[in-house]
Structures are given as structure tokens and as C-alpha cells.
Design goal:
Number of strands: 5
Shape: globular
Number of helices: 3
CATH superfamily: HIT-like
Strand content: 15-25%
Helix content: 25-40%
Largest sheet: 5 strands, antiparallel
Strand order of the largest sheet: 1-2-3-5-4
Radius of gyration: 18 Å
Distance between the termini: 33 Å
Order of helices and strands: HEEEHEEH
Number of domains: 1
Length: 147
């Protein structure tokens, strides 16, 4: 029986390996931030962990913390540089959630005039009984998650 064919490296893995260039904004031992080459607005950044995981829930606590520490600083710098007073922070997990590159990444997207992220949001209702049931299910899952 042969081993499954490995998936090709993502574009972000190739950037991290130095195979592809990027317009680097920030880098430390755990995180790389660079300009998106298909920006929704000026200053649109991509922030990636150097740990190569497809989904946020797969990241180590260390990588997640490293990104969390740098996001506010990058947001402040991007707002100062672009003059934006609003921005979106977007992170998708899975094809059904519009993830196109299967390496964890955050989009920091300044809202400048009509440029930036447009979101269609169709809120529903949360019945009280459903809320109690969902709280219990998520808390049980948290209690059993030892990572």
C-alpha cells in the first residue's frame, strides 16, 4: 500500500520558505505579516503564524498567543498609516466558510470610504431553551479539551 500523496505547499508555506516574495510588514519568530496582493482596501494585511496548520483550532497555544499579541499593534499601525478609523479582522476556517488558503491566516482590512470588507449578515433568533442547551454542550466540550 502506498503512502497518500502529500498536498502541495500552500502559497503561505512558500512565502515562509523564501520561495515567493512578499511585502513584509512585520516578522518575529512566530508570526509574519505582509500586504495582501489582492487587497480590498489600501493597507489590507495578511497575518500568518509560522506554524503551518490549516485551521485555527489546530494551532498551538504558543502560536495563537503570538498572533494575539501582535494583532492590536498591527491594527494601530495600519490605522495610523492609512488614516482609517475602522477595520475588519477576518479569519475563515474551512472551504464552506470561504477559506481559500489552508494555512491559518487573519485579514486585517481597513475600511476606507467604500473600500474594505462588505458583509451580508442575516441574524436569527436564539430561543432561551436552545441557548441553555448550547451553553451546556460547548462547556462540556471545553471541559474535555485538554490542549
Amino acid at each position: 500500500m502506498s503512502d497518500p500523496k502529500p498536498s502541495p505547499p500552500t502559497i503561505f508555506a512558500r512565502i515562509l520558505a523564501g520561495e515567493l516574495p512578499c511585502h513584509k510588514i512585520y516578522e518575529d519568530e512566530n508570526v509574519l505579516a505582509f500586504l495582501d496582493i489582492f487587497p480590498l482596501s489600501p493597507g489590507h494585511l495578511l497575518i500568518i503564524p509560522k506554524e503551518q496548520k490549516a485551521y485555527l483550532h489546530e494551532l498551538s497555544a504558543g502560536s495563537a498567543a503570538a498572533i494575539g499579541r501582535v494583532l492590536p499593534r498591527l491594527a494601530r499601525a495600519t490605522m495610523a498609516a492609512t488614516g482609517a478609523t475602522a477595520y475588519n479582522l477576518l479569519q475563515n476556517n474551512g472551504a464552506a466558510a470561504h477559506q481559500a488558503v489552508f494555512h491559518v491566516h487573519f485579514h486585517l482590512i481597513p475600511k476606507i470610504g467604500d473600500r474594505g470588507l462588505g458583509i451580508g449578515w442575516v441574524p436569527g433568533k436564539l430561543p432561551e431553551a436552545d441557548a441553555h442547551h448550547m451553553v451546556a454542550r460547548i462547556q462540556d466540550a471545553l471541559d474535555s479539551d485538554l490542549s
